[in-house]
Design brief:
Blueprint: H1 2-8, H2 14-51, H3 55-65, H4 67-84, E1 87-92, E2 103-107, H5 112-143, H6 148-164, H7 169-178, H8 183-196
Antiparallel strand pairs: 1-2
Helix pairs in contact: 2-3, 2-5, 2-8, 4-5, 4-6, 5-6, 5-7
Length: 197
């Protein structure tokens, strides 16, 4: 953190550490949204490129042929719902109405602030999980330790994750409903790390 403070020319006092901590807190909160938007852009790029050959196939490819991404997306929601104590009401992996491919229905439990935190963590789960798994799979491909067929399968999984690790409109709404509870702990973490550095 000290390098960042000196790079910005803010001095070396507590105020500089607090300023950098505030910036890092905002970046940490917005990071999943930014990553989700980048993944959405890659998904749209696929639709455009494949759509030059056949537009219907492009949507079929992005939505249905990359089903493992949908499965991982919904399982991420489910995992965080169970971990945070929400009551899972319905699990649907195959759905084609209202533009949805699957869904997990759950009911948050606990006091209002716990419900808001549950909603935030459950909503952001697919972007975090998809990004981390995509990174691991890309590292595996680039390691050169696997066969051509294994690399093709891993590549297929990466494309599936790109297509389905984004946050839906309802995920974004849920994320911002409780992400504010993380501001003070994140700021404190960055501030303490800055002081100890």
């Amino acid at each position: 953190m000290q390098q960042l403070i000196s790079w910005l020319g803010w001095g070396d006092g507590i105020g500089a550490i607090a300023g950098i901590s505030a910036i890092l807190t905002v970046l940490a909160i917005l990071a999943p949204v930014i990553v989700g938007l980048l993944l959405y852009g890659l998904e749209r790029l696929q639709v455009i490129l494949i759509g030059k050959i056949n537009r219907q196939f492009a949507y079929f490819f992005v939505n249905y042929l990359t089903f493992p991404g949908t499965f991982i997306h919904e399982m991420s929601h489910l995992s965080l719902a169970v971990i945070t104590g929400a009551e899972v009401c319905e699990i649907c992996m195959f759905e084609s109405d209202n533009g949805r491919l699957g869904h997990i229905s759950y009911r948050n439990r606990g006091p209002w602030f716990i419900k808001a935190i549950q909603e935030t963590l459950i909503s952001v789960a697919p972007t975090v999980t998809g990004t981390l798994l995509g990174y691991v799979f890309l590292k595996m491909i680039l390691s050169g330790e696997y066969s051509l067929w294994a690399n093709l399968a891993l590549g297929y999984l990466v494309v599936s994750l790109v297509n389905h690790a984004t946050m839906s409109d309802s995920d974004l709404k849920g994320y911002f409903s409780g992400v504010w509870f993380f501001i003070v702990p994140l700021f404190a973490l960055f501030f303490i790390v800055g002081l100890l550095a």
